[in-house]
Design goal:
The chain is about 30% helix and about 15% strand. The protein contains two helices and four strands.
Length: about 180
């Protein structure tokens, strides 16, 4: 097949001295550089370009991916001259790393809180201290009888009275459990 091996799309070739990021000053515009980022795709290109646009000293930022089978992107950055494109590139990357670290911490904290809450709910369910409709609760097995009949089939503790006993004609029972 003509397709390259999959690992060639994301691993740098250290034997050939392939670098992750190469800066090339763009001679046709002042204070402009192209950053060629190897083994990356639209995800990183769009992320960087959009964050460059938010920087107060950036006049222009865009990215290009030449071809889907060529795993490299080119990010062009033009500044107002108060800082070099390389300085802006480093600053924006540091900001992105800090933001991603904060998101990771928040996600981890929420995940751990959910695990603790779920473990507590499971522990309560095993002990038989479930809430309404749960084990030992009203309307559940061993709970109080609802208006529709014996325990577990009545409507007490259930939304909308679902689970009422059927009347003699096979239809649902009335409001007080009678046909």
């Amino acid at each position: 097949m003509n397709a390259p091996d999959r690992f060639e799309l994301f691993l740098l070739n250290e034997v050939e001295g392939e670098k992750k990021i190469v800066e090339r000053p763009f001679a046709r515009m002042a204070n402009t550089s192209d950053f060629i980022i190897m083994k990356e795709d639209h995800t990183i290109g769009n992320l960087l370009a959009e964050h460059f646009k938010l920087h107060p000293h950036v006049m222009f930022a865009a990215y290009q991916m030449a071809h889907p089978n060529v795993p490299e992107i080119t990010v062009r950055v033009q500044t107002d001259g108060t800082a070099t494109p390389r300085e802006i590139f480093v600053e924006v990357c540091k900001q992105l790393i800090a933001q991603l670290a904060q998101i990771s911490q928040q996600f981890t904290r929420e995940y751990q809180l959910r695990r603790m809450a779920n473990a507590e709910e499971q522990d309560n369910a095993r002990r038989g201290a479930g809430g309404p409709g749960g084990p030992g609760g009203p309307g559940g097995p061993g709970g109080a009888a609802g208006p529709g009949g014996p325990s577990g089939t009545g409507g007490a503790g259930r939304a909308g009275g679902a689970g009422r006993a059927a009347g003699p004609s096979g239809g649902a029972g009335g409001v007080d459990g009678r046909p």
